[in-house]
Structures are given as structure tokens and as C-alpha cells.
Write a structure and sequence with these properties.
The structure is a homotetramer. The first copy, chain A, has helices spanning about 10-20, 35-45, 55-60, 75-85, 100-110, 125-135, 155-160, 165-170, 170-180, 200-205, 275, 280-295, 305-320; strands at about 1-5, 25-30, 50, 60-65, 85-90, 115-120, 140-150, 185-195, 210-215, 220-225, 235-240, 245-250, 255-260, 265, 325. Chain A is of the alpha/beta class. Chain A has a seven-stranded mixed sheet with strand order 12-11-7-10-9-8-15. In chain A, helix 4 (about 75-85) packs parallel to helix 5 (about 100-110) and helix 5 (about 100-110) runs antiparallel to helix 13. The longest helix of chain A has 20 residues, at about 305-320. The relative contact order of chain A is 0.16. The interface of A and D includes residues 213 and 323 of A.
Chain lengths: ~325, ~325, ~325, ~325
């Protein structure tokens, strides 16, 4: 049973807290949050104590630190925790600044940090099964990839302003997924983005809709479709085209119920709230972190992956702004 | 190129005429119908001549006769055509009277008649594929069978009155299908029927809804679900449960188009008109008849099959009326 | 927070223990089991104490008792708990003996027992949604119903011998489901059963495959398809045919992943283990029990439902044995 | 009944001949082909006469000319037929040279030609239904579009060499489809193409795999996925994303049969041969041509559409070669 400190008692922090509490190999011991009430409530729910970051990192019983604080603090807390010899579970993204993140990666490398960067979608049973089948050669050699990732509705405009832009904030998930599935590094990025949903997003200097093409050295191609608002829920699909066939992961529905009438059939809604859609993925992240602490597994996703996904996001943003292909 | 005479220029006769005309091995030569205008129009459309039954049967060029006249004349025309040495393509059912049909079967046997009884559903590509897979052992040994056959809407009450009842008129298709797929003769029949759709059907002495259980000597079980009006179109499905799995034939839709919105997905309608739904089956019947004339195939369905399906229909009607299991 | 005593620390007892522990309104306080080790382990896992039935019922803090012991003790423990003034959560079935169960129901009625009989499938989100839509008139008036309930593989033959037979042990779930959905009491039962899977089941005096037709006073019909071994997993489907359409609940798959190749597509397996397939249903049962204790809800399923489902099971067994329709 | 001359008795010519023959408003009168045997056989099959182009165009009875000859002759025959006052049904593409096609379009405009350019996919019932629903606002305003068009297997390398390249030969269908569905002209094209299937295709100066992004003035985006060999058949799908939902047309399967076993379900193959997959579309083209001759309809697709699709194909080829966005 490893003692864990959680930094960040917000929406995603609560999810991680619950999954740590439910995991038989982990115990939530300390909760850190600048909002004392939030920290106290979450600590009480799971029998943990409220703590400062310093106390948590100084406590030799703490084996792992979950960084689920605001994005701009991910890197500092992760570095501090790693310097203190803790295993680190860092919420995505590692950072929004490529230069900063690259420099931090050098330091993390130097100190041999055990850092797990939590891109939740790799832990989704559907996408994980797709990856395993692809890697197992079920459809021959991968040639191209389609990733659809459309949100149910846009975030508040205040969030959009500080989000880092659609590529760093939202498509970053898909850049990581693409890297995982393509099996080769991306060498070229082209993106075209539009403001089709809300002019306020455009006024904030961002786009709400985008299509991105990634290309690898051997010529594999990946298309990512991004939308801040789908009109039909949380569309999360992948199709992988290989030399001998195609594997796809479809959406999860709220139920298997269908109604058939004179005009045809009606199926149920997509599972729309991301915390529901990826509930299993979040629980598997906690289990993976336990493996990392135990030394049973290296982090499936590390800081280098975070840096590379960020580099793709920057390249895509640059391409969308300039209309030019960006070579990496 | 075999010359064919068609008796009956009504709705189903027109279908057979078109399929004969389109088949490179058959030529529609003579059309017979008590309604002279109908006969003339259909003959003109396909370059055939209007004829009497006698002329058609006396013509040595005529190799095959398609009997698509009213049900009560099926048996007499089929017998006459067989006596004249013609191959016979007889629309279902052979007859509505079991004793009469049995007696006719003896005569057909005695004269070595080549009679193809056209239960169209055996020629549907979906059901034919299901049968082939089942016979090929794709799911091990067949154990049980579910047949769903629900019509879009009930026939006119005038038709119901002379139809012979739901079991002889409608479920007869499914009795033939069950016999084909079960691979063993049925030994017990239980049926429960209701009037749920239109009281007028009950007043006419018939039911509009039924569930029937068939059982074979080895204990295989088949359920047939029957409805004169489904409320969602022409539901034609089969599920076959074997020792190693299940094979099913689903419904055909009007298109593959789906609309997804906030409340879920909407698929297209079932293909509802039976002449559309079974268009391919009817064309395949004509091709099979050409094979029968050529001696390349024995009739896939013969008069004996007609008699046995009729026996099941009578048993089911008796069971539904009495509430008792009928043993054959 | 209501204190709960659990009688039975076996497979299903563990599920209920976990769901009680996870429910914010319930606390698992006492665990009873004749196997001291099992009781101790389960109690330790959830911070409860090992207890005798007597102690548990004598404890005024205990508000509810979950009876998850062996089937032959369900009735006695439920009665004792009810007599002690506790709300009762009784695993299905209430009992295997109709006379005994009926007599007990009279006593439960007399003392105003709050007894929730846990037929888990009513709490499955798919079936619950189907029921709600049906009750809401989404497809008009219900006419007929198809319930498919095929197990992945048969239980050990030792279990079969004491199971009470396929109808009381397995189909009882479907009788309850049928009663819930039909909206009318069943007046006639016909069943046909076979031994197709394992002769040993036949030698034990039981069948492994059955088709049952239920009929209500107004002529609604229900078919139940039962198999102890499907060959393709845990098949749990319902189709409800109404005057204006059809509602169906399909199976749950292990993932949404499909592979497409030259020979067509391959979809994932059915969710086969019943504790996985009905995991959400079990959690909802605990929440419903909390509502019952709080007086916010009457038991969705009570002892009367248990008696009636048992009566249908007895009627079906009698029909299958005699080949006769059984009128209730 | 309009007399039609057909130029070209090859594979696609035979399809058009059969559909003209089957259409009650059209009669196949003359067949032209440099291969005398091919012309004679096709003419004989449909009761037409073998003819030269000059004879056909000089015959005042001929109302329409179907140009189904080799691609490099499409434009000349179409112009000649139009000059002779005939309605023209021209197989796609209009030509492979943009300058030539543009110049011809001016002449066709000047003489008021009735030219129907037969991009068959617009007549597919699935895609036509998708277009109608989209135009009807079923999912609000269109935002983005995904077109997947993967062939079962590459054409012979000899064909590849003279094909004009993947964009003009294959993706041209999708450029037309995109234009039809986008509802706005395309202003920017970016394409990335690879040789992943057969190095010989690369040696012939062509690519076998491509992803193309189209953009309109208002920012609508379209992705086209192209492959000469899918490994799983003829994949022909479209997804249209609107402000209120998504409409998609799925693939057509060979049958509705599924087999379920221990490892999951197996569905049937895609309908792989393009003449089968688009059989209905080709028949509808003939009917549309009859409408055009009758003056009941303007050509759904005209020479201008042909020129614009060709312009997109040239732009895509240029973009793929240069790595640069091409603005139109």
C-alpha cells in the first residue's frame, strides 16, 4: 500500500482521488489545494489529511505525487516532486510552452525521474484494444489513421482565452494518440482551422474547428478532426487503415436500447460527459501508477511524450496560422 | 431458351413475367388470365401472346408453366400442366386444403412431375446464406430457431375472410423456412394466437398475432413470431442458435444513412414492400426454374414440401383454437 | 447513513458488500456467514464486524438486512429480519417452494414487512430504459414480447441437481421481467424444453434448453428463450412489440472495436460474466434499498412478485413435463 | 421513347446499354465502337444497330448520345454530339486537361449544350439521401465533411501510367461529391500523398494513398481519404458534420447475415465490385438522362462541374507534389 499525495482538489483531482482510494495498492494520504475548503472536503471523504506541497514532498512515506493542479503549475510541481524522489503522475499537458517543457525534460532526464504523463485516452479499453490489435499486425502494416475528437460543447470563453489554443488544449490528446498508434515520429504537419461555432472564440484569437494532417518519414498519414461542439455529443472515434484491413473504435452509447417505428430506428445518445466516457480509463491510470511505483512498469507515457505532443501542437498552430506545411 | 407460359397476370404474375423476360435462358411466350386486358397488357410488354390454358398446355414448345393465378386454382393448373409434361413453377401455397393437397401429391408423384413450389424466402440471399452457413456447421449443431415475420399492415378484411387464416396464409412461409432450417421433421406444434390489431379480423374468425413453437423428434425447438401489422415495417428476421454460436439474418434497410443528433441516432426505414424486399429472391426463383427445366437441378422445394408446410399450418391453427399441443 | 447487516459472504454477498460500502447513504456494519473465514475477510475489507444473525437482528442500529445466503435460507432469514423490524433486501429467488413462499407472503403482509426482492435485471440501465419507454407509450400499446436469456455455459451438475430446475433457477429472472413489462398478469403458460447441451442435465431430471409462451387475459403474448449454454456468450436481449413500433435492448459488448478485412467485419465479444454484465444493476439495487429504508420508495419488487414469478416457474415446469397448457 | 446512340461498348458502356434498354422512356438504337465485334455483340443483345459516330450524329431520330468511350475521346465526342444538337450523357471525367476542358466548356456554353456529366455517386441512393437531408437542414448548417473512398485493389500498372494520376483518375469523384455537398466553392486545397501499396505506382510517377483538405471561403472544411487498395474491400462512406448533428452514409454489405461465436460477431463483406455497389446509381443516371432529353430537368451535373472538379484535382496534385497549399 503506497501513500499518495494529491495536488489539486478540483474536478479531475476528485476523480483521481476516488480511483486512488478504490485501488487496493494505493492510499490517498495527503491532499493539497490552495482552496482550503476543497482540500478539506476531499481529504475528509477519503480519510486523508490536508497538507502543503512542502509537507507532502518532505514526508518520506509518500511514494507518489499526483499533479492535478492548474495547467501552469504542472511542470513546477512535477519537477519538485521528482527532485524529492517521488514517482509523479502528472495530468496532461506537461506544459503549454515548448521551450520550457523541453528544458524541464532535460532536468527530469538528468535526475532519472519516474514521471507518468496521464493522457487518459491511451487507457480507454477501446483505444487500447485497437492499439494492441494494430501492434499485433491484425490488419497488416499501418498505412493511415483517422482520429475524430469532437466535444459536446465549447468551454466558457474565459477558459478559451487562457487555454493555449485549440491545438495545445484539445488536439494535444489526439497528437499523443497519433504518435502512439503511428509507430513512427511525425515529420510534417499541416492544419486548417476555422471559426464556425462561436465568433467569440475567433475574437479570443482561437479557432473552434480544425482538420490536421500528420505525415511520418515513411509516408504514413494521419488525419485529425477537431470540433469544440459536435451537435450530437462527445464523438471519440479512431479508424486505423492497414495493408490488410481496418480496425476501428466506435463511440460508446448510453444504452443499447433502440426504438423502431415507421420512420426507422432511433438509437441512444453518445456517452457525453468525458468523466463518464473515460471513467474506466481514469481507474486504469491509477493502477498503472501503482505499477510504476512498484517498478513493475515504466511509465507508458513520459515527459518526452509530453514534449513531442506539444511540439506537434505548436506546429499545427503555426501551420493553421500561416497556411504552410510545417516540417519537424 | 425455354418457352414459358404464365397463368395469372396479377401483381405476382407481373413480377414473374419480368424475371422470366430478363433471364437469358427463358422466354415468356404465352400469358393466360381471365381478365383479357390484364393478359394483353402483360403479353404486349414482353412480346408474348395471350393464350388460353388449353392452348398453352397443348403447345409442345412450352417447356414450363408458371402458375401465379388465384390460390384456389394453384393445384388444378399445376396438375394439368404436369399431366401435359410441363415443368411447373407453382406460387405458394400449393393449396389450402390438406386432404386435397395430399391426394394431388400422390398423383404428382405417380406421374413423376417436376414441380417447383415457389416459397420465395428460401431464395433470399440473406436467408440462403444463413442456411448454407448453418448446414456447413459454422455454429455447430442447430439447437433452436427464432423466426420473426411481421407484416407492415394487415390485408383488407375481404382478403382475410378468404385467406384460409393467418397460419395457412401468412405463417406458411415460416413453416417452410423452419422445415428447411431445422433439418428434421416437426413432431409437435403449439400455437397461441390473439386479436390485438383489428377486432374485424377476430370477427372474421381469424387472429392477427401469433406465437408458435415447433419441436422435432430430437428436441430441436423453433419459435415463430407472427403479426399482421408491426408498426415499424416489414420485419423479416431469423436467428439460428447452434452448439457453437448463433447466425442471424437482419432486416434490409432502405439506405445506410444515419442521422446523429443530441438525442442519439436515427437509422433508415425497413425495406417495407415485399416485392422490393424479395426482389432478388424472385429473380433467383426464375433462374432456379430454368435449372429445373434444364435438368440441372431438382426443385429445391417440391409438392411434398407444400403438403408438409400445410400440415404444420393446420396443426398450428388447431392448437391455437384448442389450447392444446398437436402431435404430428 | 444506515447500518446494514449482510447475511452471506459468498460471491453475490461480496458484490452487495462492495456496493453498500460505496453507497454514501449505507454502511456495512455486520457480516454473517457460517464460514467464519469468509465472514472475517469480508468484514475486514469493509471495516465491518463479524456477527451472528441473532446479534445482527437484535442490534437496533441495524436498519436493513441483506439476505445473500443459500437459496433455501432466503425465506427464513427474510422473515426473521422483517419480524425484527428491519428493511429486507432479499436475493432472488424468495424460495423454491410455492406453497411455502405463499404462506410466508401472508405473514410478511400481516407484519407490514418492507421487503425488496432483488431481481437484478430490472435495475439494468438498458432494460430499465426499455421499460420506461414502453410504459411511456413510445411504441403505443404493448402487444408481444420476446426475452432471450442464454447463459455462456451450464453450471456444475451438482448445482443443477439442487437448483430446483431450469425454470425456477434460471428462467425465474425472465418470468419477473415478463411480468414487469407485460403490465398484466399471465393467465396461461406453455413451455417446451429439451436436453440438447449435456445428457447429464437430463439424467439429473432437468432440461437445458426451453421455449416458453406466456399469455395474459387481454391476449398479450410473451416468448422466453432459455439456454444453459449459448456458444457465443451471455445473450441478454429483449424485444417489445407495440402497436406503433418496437423497442429492443441489445447485448453489451466488451468493447466498441471492430476489425474489417477481406471477409467482412469482426466485432467484439459479448460481456459474458454476469457480475460484469450487471455491475451497474447491482449498484443500483443498493441505492434503491437506501431509498426503501429512507421511505422514499416502496420496494420496486416485493414478496408478492417473488410468489408470482415462482408460480409461473412452477406452471412452466408442469407444462414442459406434461405437454399441456397450464392455466393460472 | 427516345432513340439513343451509345459510343463505347466496353465495361461501362454495357452497363449504360442495359439501363437504357430497361428504361421505358429510352431505346438503344445505335452502338459505336472501334472494336467491331464488341459493337456488334452489344447491339445484338439490345436490338440496336452498329453505327459510326458520323451516322449516329447525322440521324435526326437520335435524341441523345451516351459517351462511354476512352477518356481521351470524351471531350471530342461530347462536343461533336452537342454541335449536332443531341443531348449528351458523358462518362466522367470530362477530360484530363484543365485548359482543354475549360476551352471546351466555353464552346458548350456558346451553343447551349445539354450535357450531363455522369458522376455516378451523386445518384447513389445513400449519398443522394445524405445530400437531401443536409440540404434540408436536418443537422443545421454544414461545417465539415469527411469522404472516404478506398478501392478494393489497385488497377493494372499500365492503366496507372495513363490514368492522369490518382487525383484526376480516382479522387475526381470525391472532388465532385465535395463540391455538391459543401454548397460553396473550394478556395484552398492541400494534399499529402504517399506510395504505401505498390512501389511500381511510385515508379510510374503516381501515388496510391492520399489525404486532401479542401476549404471554402466561409471556412468549411472537407477531408478526402483516398487509397488504391483498402485490404477490406470497397469503402465508400461520407460523414457530414453540421451545427446540430451529423449525417453519415455507411457502406453496403453483401448480406445482413452475422455469425456470433465465442470471439464475437462476424459480419458480411462490403459490396466490393463498383458495378454492383453503384448498380442503382447507374440506372438512375439513365432515368435522369431521359428527364434531360424531355426537358423535365436540367443536367444535375454539367460541364462546368466537370471543369471545376478537374481544377481541384490539378490543385491537389500540385499541392501533393510541392508540399504547399494551393489557393484557387
Amino acid at each position: 500500500m503506497h501513500d499518495i499525495a494529491l495536488i489539486g482538489a478540483g474536478r479531475i483531482g476528485k476523480i483521481h482521488a476516488a480511483n486512488i482510494a478504490a485501488n487496493p495498492r494505493l492510499r490517498l494520504s495527503r491532499v493539497v489545494d490552495p482552496f482550503a475548503d476543497a482540500a478539506a472536503a476531499l481529504a475528509a471523504e477519503h480519510g486523508a489529511t490536508v497538507s502543503s506541497v512542502e509537507e507532502a514532498l518532505a514526508d518520506p512515506a509518500i511514494r507518489g505525487v499526483v499533479v492535478a493542479s492548474s495547467t501552469d503549475t504542472h511542470l513546477d510541481y512535477s519537477l519538485a516532486a521528482a527532485e524529492a524522489g517521488k514517482a509523479v503522475f502528472c495530468e496532461k499537458p506537461l506544459d503549454q510552452d515548448l521551450a520550457r517543457a523541453s528544458k524541464a525534460a532535460e532536468r527530469l532526464e538528468a535526475i532519472g525521474a519516474k514521471l507518468f504523463l496521464a493522457f487518459n485516452r491511451r487507457f480507454d479499453p477501446n483505444f487500447a484494444s485497437l492499439q494492441a490489435r494494430l501492434a499485433g499486425g491484425e490488419v497488416g502494416t499501418l498505412e493511415t489513421l483517422h482520429i475524430i475528437s469532437h466535444d459536446p460543447s465549447p468551454p466558457p470563453i474565459e477558459y478559451v482565452r487562457v487555454s493555449g489554443g485549440i491545438f495545445k488544449d484539445m488536439v494535444i490528446h489526439d497528437f499523443d494518440m497519433a504518435r502512439w498508434l503511428l509507430g513512427e515520429e511525425v515529420t510534417e504537419v499541416f492544419a486548417s482551422s476555422s471559426v464556425l461555432i462561436d465568433p467569440a472564440i475567433g475574437e479570443a484569437g482561437d479557432a473552434d474547428t480544425a482538420k490536421t494532417i500528420l505525415r511520418t518519414a515513411s509516408g504514413r498519414l494521419c488525419v485529425i478532426s477537431s470540433s469544440r461542439r459536435s451537435g450530437y455529443g462527445y464523438d471519440q472515434r479512431i479508424e486505423a487503415f492497414g495493408s490488410k484491413g481496418m480496425i476501428r473504435a466506435q463511440n460508446q452509447l448510453e444504452s443499447t436500447v433502440e426504438t423502431w417505428g415507421e420512420n426507422g430506428s432511433a438509437g441512444d445518445k453518445l456517452q457525453n460527459f468525458f468523466l463518464d466516457r473515460y471513467a474506466v480509463a481514469y481507474a486504469r491510470e491509477a493502477a498503472h501508477f501503482a505499477d510504476v511505483i512498484d517498478g513493475k512498469a515504466a511509465p507508458l507515457i513520459g515527459y518526452t511524450d509530453g514534449v513531442r505532443a506539444l511540439a506537434l501542437a505548436e506546429a499545427a498552430a503555426k501551420s493553421a496560422a500561416s497556411g504552410e506545411l510545417v516540417r519537424l
